[in-house]
Structures are given as structure tokens and as C-alpha cells.
Amino acid sequence: MQSENCNNLAKTPEDSKQVAATSQLEPKEENLMQQGNKIFEYIDNYRKNIRNLRVCPDVVPGFMSQQIPEDPPVKAETLDDIMRDVTDKILPGLVHWTSPYMHAYFPAQTSTPSILAEALSAAINSICFTWASSPSGTELEMIVMDWLARMIDLPDKFIHANTSTSGGGTILTTCSEATLNSMMAARKRAIDQLRVMNMDECYHESDTVINAKLVAYVSEMAHSSLKKNAQICMFRLQALPVDETTGGLRGATLLRQMYKDISLGLVPFYVCATLGTTGCCTFDHLDEICDT
């Protein structure tokens, strides 16, 4: 019954109109193999010649509006026309992250296997938000994350296969999204624990009131996304000074600030250590932080 319902989802009149409108934008004279060969040839040429391209573009804000029409297309264009636009209008405004002369931010290399994998993933386009929506996608993610955890020698409590704990990893789109998710999970856990540990004080308080007491810690060299994520979660974030010699956050510095905040009635609940800061690639002292 469930399969029948899924198969019939796109059989309403409105869905048919939408499919028909979409098909008008798809070139009919070329098939997937012909188009794919052109795309992969373009990719191959780009990768071979990337060292000859200017890494940072010589453009000013708003340049793209002079290149692209204000209204979207209503008729299909050939792939050749589209790729001509990519070459003439898109590439000149790109920062070429995979260039051998790109030394800013962080490494962002790609490879032939990853390019092919992206194409295969886009073709299958399985939406993996639950096990039911994609059993293979869900279980493969868990297995691969366990591989990674073992490669970097994480404790067994971070392994999906260890059924005695609730630990395990997940694949997210960016580091910023990952820290936001960790903050939200830590906040929920802290609020729940405070209700249990301080029944008299916290039982009748709203989550908002308890949340106002929470405080998180990072080094002053930490990525700016952590400050933004703390603003989203609406709790305090302390950016602590780093060691002048190593450039990393020391455990003693963290401990002093935690004691100070506790004396003010605040509740320390979250620490994010950075291993390789964006600004100067310094490392917080993870061993000291873990012992705090």
C-alpha cells in the first residue's frame, strides 16, 4: 500500500503540468551520454589548465547582474550555449579553490573518484533523512563514520557499532553546520540534566530561563561561525585568550573562567577546541581541555 501511494504521488493534474513545464527546459536533441561526455571533457580541460587561471577574480560586487538576464529563461538552451556562459560569465568571477596557487582558508582539493562519485550520487538522488527513506544511505553513512572514528583513534563510545552507547557520527555539509548541531544537542542535554539535578530550582522554569544561564567556551582564535551559532542558540559564548607562545587555549585559562562564571550563577556546558585555526593554524591544547 505504501509503495502504491509513493508511485501515485506524481499523477495529479497539477503534478503533470509541473512535469510538462519542466520538460520544456530540457534539450531534446541530446541524450545523457552526449551531454555527459561534453561535461566531463570540460571538467578534464578545466583541471588540466587550472594552474593558468587567476586564483582570485578581478571583479567588484554586483558584476554578475551585468552578465545574467534579470528574468529566468522560458525556453531551453543548448548545452553548448550554457557552457559558453559558464566560461565567459561564471569562471571569471570564481575563486579557484583547487588551484595549486590557492593558499587561503583551508585545503579544498578534489579528485577523479570524488567527481565521479558526485555524478553518481546526483543521478541516484536518494534523500537520506531517515532509515525508511534510504536504508542503504543511512547504514552506509554509519559504517563509513565508524571507519573514520577508528582511523583517528576515537574512543569506542563514538562508534555506531558499539550498541552499549548512544554515540556515533553523521555527515554534514559544513563545519559551521556541524558545530551548530553539536551546540543544539549539548543545550538540550544540559537543560534536561539541570531539571533532574536541580528539581527544586529548575523544574518549573521554562527552557528559555534555563538557557539564559548556560555558557559555552572557545578560544579567541576560533572560527567566527561559533559566535554566530551561539547567537542562533541564544546562550552566552566566552572567547578566551590564547597562550602567547603556542597560540592555543590552555586548560588553566578555561578552568579559571569556568569558576568565575559558576560564581556568577552561570552553568558551563560546552567547549569547542580548535585543531588548526583558520587565522594562523594554531592548536588548542586538547589534552588539557579534556582534563579540565
UniProtKB/TrEMBL annotation:
Coiled coil: none annotated. GO terms for biological process: catecholamine biosynthetic process. Keywords: Catecholamine biosynthesis, Decarboxylase, Lyase, Pyridoxal phosphate. GO terms for molecular function: histidine decarboxylase activity. Residues 1-10 have a biased composition (Polar residues). Its EC number is 4.1.1.22. Its cofactor is pyridoxal 5'-phosphate. Residues 1-20 are annotated as: Disordered. Gene3D superfamilies: dopa decarboxylase, N-terminal domain, Type I PLP-dependent aspartate aminotransferase-like (Major domain). It holds the Pfam family Pyridoxal_deC. InterPro entries: Aromatic_deC, PyrdxlP-dep_de-COase, PyrdxlP-dep_Trfase, PyrdxlP-dep_Trfase_major. It comes from the Eukaryota. SUPFAM superfamilies: PLP-dependent transferases (SSF53383). Belongs to the group II decarboxylase family. Homodimer. This is Histidine decarboxylase.
